[in-house]
Design a protein that fits this description.
Number of helices of chain A: 13
Distance between the termini of chain A: 24 Å
Order of helices and strands of chain A: HEHEHEHHEHEHEEHEHEHEEHHH
CATH architecture of the largest domain in chain A: Alpha-Beta Barrel
Number of strands of chain A: 11
Radius of gyration of chain A: 19 Å
CATH class of the largest domain in chain A: Alpha Beta
Low-confidence stretches of chain A: none
Oligomer: homodimer
Strand content of chain A: 5-15%
Mean pLDDT of chain A: 96
CATH topology of the largest domain in chain A: TIM Barrel
CATH superfamily of the largest domain in chain A: Aldolase class I
Structural class of chain A: alpha/beta
Shape of chain A: globular
Number of domains of chain A: 2
């Protein structure tokens, strides 16, 4: 099955949903160019989702993807939160932040009934999930309007689990990928493998179509992924310098510099391993902190540090999400980049 | 420059040198089939190297590669050795080994004047190194008979360093690769990236030809590597079930099972990070041990455990070297596998 049959799109390019650095504008540009644009909803409330979906519907009649996290909300742990804030205490002192005044909070919400209700009004043609799948009753609501359902697998076991639970396609997320690892059957980072190893093993293990993600940055990368059996490539990092992305100035500067050649999987920004460019906070309290609260609770204590540093033009405390291959980043319109990735400029 | 111009071989397949699991027989079979066979010399003394080279010269007139490690021999550290043996003490007790009777030792020697002298008698057409390059006077001796010189890069910086020091081609070793990481300008494992990310960035960074390694297991993988700009693929793991390999029975069994889907970078076998299938000793004292002595000194204390376990048919303490993609392992003659990898069966 090719991407036209699967999603009704012309080019084998999925734009990776990237919460915090893009909204509807990037999704629209990619979909209009013939790829599958994506709206990341993990950091949006129901009203914001509604506004963004209305914007997409107003701007394009092409297929698009809406993406949700589907983690189980954790039980807050006061001792761990205290240990985490203690680890960050020298940074609070340096930036003049009153740690006692920082509210606790989640930062990212899982897919829930409220979100499903918003989606029902818009009936998006593709819905993708990260960290597995939502509970069956919620998934059934998404299927009710005929949406194609995707989710990420970081191991062969996860790919088989997703197929058994009815996804229409599996995203094979190699360890090169930027942002959060989609891992959901294991927390062991040694299970996470490169795209060259993961993709062909998943292609062989499941019957549903497989989309390749991780380290794919240009047309040669897309071609290589297709030759390894993928029906399409999902590309994220390469879009981060496009004018339609909302990537911050420090993040853009890091991506365009040699700093982007050194990324790490880190849990310091959210509590779950995610890949970003190595910066001060990763070096000083990470990359993997044993005291970072469970996802997404680690976020709250970092947020004021990030805000204070960004006010000074610094990305020292920001998640500078990036995959291991930022060499395809181009400050060109996303539609043009989509066509370049597909080799049809 | 293609592989025929570079090495005088017909197929874009380099057999990865794999010390401990193969000798001249595998190298001969691959070279006779049109690829570039390799003799790993890291665990061989001068006499053994001479014997193996004589065997190769007697069996084939085709080009082949001899491979050496070129680490700096470490200064033994008695406290660390003691801590390492203490970490292994429960295992010694269980297997009835007298820890006091275990000799210290290196296990692997770097390329030296004695090895150069042996090579001078045989003038092998290709000499490859791991962990950088040997000192200039030794490298000059290798160049004197016109050998092509290769070495592995695990980062863009390492590739540029190797080019500046005169290699004829760079092996881009993605993190998927089995065995020892070739890293030599850094010890930070977060710098190690997947083949999809590493290969195109190195291709862009250097002018010499680039050979792709890591996660390449079959003809589709080779084709993908070539489409990312490599002139050839170096394949190791896929050859480990060939009859010409000397892979042990427990190692063969692990490679042929689902266990091979879970590998880790571990320093417990030698002191340097190397990728192998996760087994008991990796789980219990690794994967990365802070007390493992510097490479290659960690080997001595593990060796009697390995021997005792293997006598019982167990691979619990053996290095079960494997890349992240063992799906291409086939118990077929290595010449046939070489042609399969090249897509010319």
């Amino acid at each position: 099955m090719n991407v036209t049959e699967l999603f009704g799109i012309a080019l084998p390019i999925l734009q990776a949903p990237m919460a915090g650095v893009q909204g509807s504008a990037l999704a629209i540009a990619v979909s209009e160019a013939g790829g599958l644009g994506a709206l990341p909803c993990a950091m949006l409330g129901p009203d914001a989702i509604r506004t963004e979906l209305a914007a997409i519907r107003a701007a394009t009649s092409r297929p698009f993807n809406v993406n949700f996290f589907c983690h189980t909300a954790p039980v807050p742990d006061a001792a761990r939160e205290a240990a985490w804030r203690a680890a960050l205490a020298p940074c609070y002192a340096e930036l003049g932040i009153d740690a006692a005044a920082i509210p606790a909070g989640a930062g990212r919400r899982p897919f829930d009934a409220e979100a499903a209700e918003v989606l029902e009004a818009f009936r998006p043609p593709v819905v993708s999930f990260h960290f597995g799948l939502p509970p069956p009753e919620l998934l059934a609501r998404v299927r009710a309007w005929g949406a194609k359902v995707l989710s990420s697998a970081t191991t062969v076991d996860e790919a088989r689990w997703l197929e058994a639970h009815g996804v229409d396609a599996v995203i094979a997320q190699g360890v090169e990928a930027g942002g959060h690892r989609g891992m959901f059957l294991t927390e062991d980072l040694t299970t996470q493998v490169g795209t060259f190893a993961l993709l062909p093993q998943i292609v062989r293990a499941v019957r549903v179509p497989v989309i390749a993600a991780g380290g794919i940055a240009d047309a040669a990368g897309v071609a290589a992924a297709l030759s390894l059996g993928a029906v399409a490539a999902q590309v994220g990092t390469s879009f981060l310098l496009c004018p339609e992305a909302t990537t911050s100035a420090p993040h853009r500067a890091a991506l365009a510099s040699d700093a982007a050649r050194h990324t790490a999987l880190t849990n310091v920004f959210t509590g779950r391993p995610a890949r970003g460019i190595v910066n001060r906070v990763i070096r000083e309290v990470g990359p993997i902190s044993a005291v970072a609260p469970a996802f997404p609770l680690a976020t709250a204590a970092i947020t004021p540090l990030r805000a204070a540093a960004e006010r000074r033009g610094s990305g020292d405390f920001s998640p500078l999400w990036s995959g291991q291959n930022a060499s395809g980043c181009r400050a060109v319109p996303a539609g043009q980049l989509t066509r370049m990735l597909a080799g049809t400029p």
